[in-house]
Write a structure and sequence with these properties.
It contains 2 helices and 6 strands; from the N terminus they run ββββββαα. The protein has 107 residues and is an alpha+beta fold. The radius of gyration is 16 Å and the shape is globular.
Length: 107
């Protein structure tokens, strides 16, 4: 997937996949004529580009299970700072964080 954000092209095919995880994202839903916001878990991949820019790719919803959503949930990319990416990986997988960003002080 490709997306331009702040005049930069982010491309999942040209970037390196660092980590895959589930992200709870907000969505709009309709029920009995009422519209409300809820959340839904989506497969998400964290990437780094060759120029050390970080981004996440939030993947397409399963249309068979999400046919009541208003509009279509689309795939999209969000850019991240290195600090945000580092913090995310430290929370999700400390060993991967050490591999990518170096050793940290023991508590």
């Amino acid at each position: 997937m490709k997306q331009i954000i702040n005049n930069k092209l982010y491309d999942t095919e040209k970037a390196d996949l660092l980590y895959s995880y589930l992200k709870n994202v907000p969505i709009m839903r309709s029920f009995l004529g009422n519209t409300y916001e809820t959340t839904c878990w989506r497969d998400t991949d964290l990437y780094v580009t060759k120029k050390n820019n970080y981004f996440i790719h939030i993947k397409q919803a399963n249309e068979n299970r999400n046919n009541s959503y208003i509009g279509r949930f689309v795939e999209y990319i969000e850019e991240m700072s290195e600090e945000e990416a580092k913090s995310l990986i430290q929370k999700l997988n400390p060993d991967k964080a050490i591999e990518l960003f170096g050793e940290v002080e023991e508590a």
